[in-house]
Write a structure and sequence with these properties.
Strand content: 5-15%
Helix content: 40-55%
Number of helices: 17
Number of strands: 13
Order of helices and strands: HEHEHEHHEEEEHHHEEHHEHEEHHEHHHH
CATH superfamily of the largest domain: Periplasmic binding protein-like II
Signal peptide: 1-18
CATH class of the largest domain: Alpha Beta
Structural class: alpha+beta
Family: Belongs to the bacterial solute-binding protein 1 family.
Radius of gyration: 22 Å
InterPro entries: SBP (IPR006059)
Strand order of the largest sheet: 2-1-3-12-6-13
Largest sheet: 6 strands, mixed
Distance between the termini: 22 Å
Number of domains: 2
Low-confidence stretches: 1-30
Protein name: Carbohydrate ABC transporter substrate-binding protein, CUT1 family
Keywords: Signal, Transport
Length: 425
């Protein structure tokens, strides 16, 4: 998902349909399957495409180029509001009235594939063309059910002018350096808070997990068949994250509605972690010349540097009456030159690695940093129960950051609840 806020994801409504795909893991392995091949030649007939938010509004413009290249096809795009999308999909799946192609949030793939609603990816689509973390969002039980359409990841934004005032001339590369920089922003540059971090609540896992992944944490165990929250690597990361709040570097009482841009521009909060859309947002608030007053840097290293990979996937539904044309449209949207066109139209970052060689992306040094982080960015497991389980994690993290609760006890609780819910596979 993306752009619901700097770090908040859509929270899914638990429906009877969703529950039918959840429950305890039976422990049975899911055999990987390969989708059927797609015929040669141009696309024909009509296909219906669902897409959410701004993507749904902008996609028809790009779809016209596909129609021009395939004179016998008609692409009908339906734009859907994000807040209504999940229920609309589940209702459509129940009624066997799904679209041919759809933009699917990465954290929904496990649920929809678990319901048997998605078509397996054809062999002509090669995973090596995509960023590894992004491709992983399409896989459920070892089978891919789509392609990453666009991606985003999170970097550390920082005020270069205030960093210089704090005596920092080059960005830090490790955990200790990041914390020292944030503290110096308060002590020497006059910031009220050194860095803006989410104090628990919905979607806070997206802020915590980059630190955990950078410390070598894995969210699954037993060959990818079970959740794995209660580990030494995760505990060390949560303790580190908590220290920003207990040491008064981050605001444990930050408002529920983020004030990221004005706080960053004023210098009140000169550092925060977010995705590429914040570049235009802070520059709009900051006005002329502000783009020269800030920089972005990769997540700091503990064992490695990793971050969260988000975005959305493209999937073809099994009920399609025009499977070949549906997949041809998906393949066309995955061409590097089309990905660059889509970036220029929407500012959505390409999921296809070779598209990043285009000057439109390479010439922007800040944007290029996002491309570098995408090489090691990771996604959560595609279990159908992920949205249920991660709610518990968010709740426990709020206790950790706001009340100083014991991180070890919090992770033990999350693991216990995750095992109770199961993976849904």
């Amino acid at each position: 998902m993306k752009r619901t806020s700097a770090i908040v994801v859509v929270t899914l409504t638990t429906t009877a349909l969703a529950l039918s795909s959840c429950g305890r893991d039976s422990g049975a392995a899911t055999a990987a399957t390969q989708g059927k091949t797609v015929s040669d030649g141009k696309a024909t007939g009509s296909i219906t495409v669902w897409a959410m938010g701004a993507e749904g509004e902008k996609l028809p413009e790009l779809a016209k180029e596909f129609e021009a290249a395939n004179p016998g096809v008609k692409v009908n795009v339906t734009a859907i509001p994000w807040d209504a999308a999940h229920d609309k999909f589940t209702t459509a799946i129940t009624a066997n009235q799904t679209p041919d192609v759809a933009m699917v949030g990465t954290t929904w793939m496990g649920e929809f594939a678990g319901l048997g609603a998605l078509d397996a990816t054809p062999p002509a689509i090669k995973k090596d063309a995509y960023f590894p973390g992004a491709w992983g969002t399409t896989e459920v039980g070892g089978t891919s059910y789509g392609v990453p359409w666009y991606v985003e990841t999170r970097l550390v934004y920082y005020r270069t002018d205030l960093a210089e005032k704090a005596g920092i001339t080059s960005p830090p590369t490790d955990w200790a350096g990041l914390k020292s920089m944030a503290k110096a922003m308060q002590d020497k540059a006059g910031a009220k808070w050194g860095i803006g971090l989410q104090a628990g609540g919905t979607g806070s896992w997206q802020s915590v997990m980059p630190f955990a992944w950078s410390n070598g944490a894995e969210l699954t165990k037993d060959g990818g068949k079970a959740y794995n929250f209660n580990t030494p690597e995760m505990l060390e990361a949560v303790k580190y994250y908590q220290s920003y709040f207990t040491d008064g570097i981050s605001d444990k009482a930050a408002p529920a509605t983020p004030t990221t841009e004005p706080d960053f521009v004023s210098g009140k909060v000169p550092m925060f972690i977010s995705g590429p859309w914040e570049m235009s947002a802070v520059e709009k608030v900051g006005g002329a010349g502000f783009k020269d007053k800030y920089g972005v840097m990769k997540m700091p290293v503990k064992k490695t540097s990793s971050s969260f990979v988000g975005g959305s996937d493209l999937a073809v539904f099994k009920n399609t009456k025009n499977r070949d044309s549906a997949w041809k449209f998906v393949e066309w949207l995955s061409k590097p030159d089309v990905q660059v066109k889509w970036y220029k139209l929407s500012t959505d970052l390409p999921s296809v690695k070779s598209a990043w060689d285009d000057p439109a992306l390479q010439q922007d040094k800040k944007l290029a940093e996002f491309g570098k982080q995408l090489e090691t960015a990771k996604a959560p497991p595609s279990f159908p129960t992920w949205e249920q389980v991660i709610t518990s994690f968010d709740t426990e993290m709020e206790k950790v950051t706001k009340t100083g609760a014991d991180p070890a006890a919090a992770l033990k609780t999350v693991q216990s609840q995750a095992e109770s819910i199961g993976t849904g596979q």
